[in-house]
């Protein structure tokens, strides 16, 4: 898991330096989430985080990893309505 997240972080930094935007799959973001949980919160998985820690992690995924509300909801098990209130500009036009 560490190697996977390290490789993804390197790819993100390279893409950003080239002015490109990185799109992560759910599997890649799950690896990143587990890595962040371990480093930042000393927890093994996101389900062990408090509500405020999950909100903070959702902000990180939204702003640093450009994850949309639906993807964050699937990964962190936060209701989409909660995320829509946190990130109203990200509400998709499909709903």
Helix content: 55-70%
Looking at how many chains there are and whether they match, the oligomeric state comes to: single chain
- How would you sum up the major sheet? none
Number of helices: 5
Structural class: mainly alpha
Characterization of the model:
The protein has 95 residues and is mostly helical. The chain has one domain. The chain contains 5 helices and no strands. The chain has helices spanning 2-17, 26-41, 51-65, 69-76, 80-86. Helix 1 (2-17) crosses helix 2 and helix 2 (26-41) crosses helix 3 (51-65). The protein is globular.
Please render the helix and strand layout as text.
Blueprint: H1 2-17, H2 26-41, H3 51-65, H4 69-76, H5 80-86
List key phrases describing it.
single chain, about 100 residues, mainly alpha, 5 helices
Short description:
The protein contains 5 helices and no strands.
């Amino acid at each position: 898991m560490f190697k996977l997240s390290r490789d993804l972080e390197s790819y993100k930094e390279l893409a950003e330096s080239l002015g490109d935007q990185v799109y992560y799959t759910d599997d890649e973001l799950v690896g990143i989430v587990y890595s962040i949980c371990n480093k930042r919160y000393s927890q093994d998985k996101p389900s062990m985080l408090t509500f405020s820690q999950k909100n903070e992690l959702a902000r990180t995924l939204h702003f640093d990893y450009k994850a949309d509300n639906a993807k964050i909801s699937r990964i962190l098990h936060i209701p989409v309505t909660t995320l829509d209130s946190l990130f109203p500009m990200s509400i998709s036009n499909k709903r």
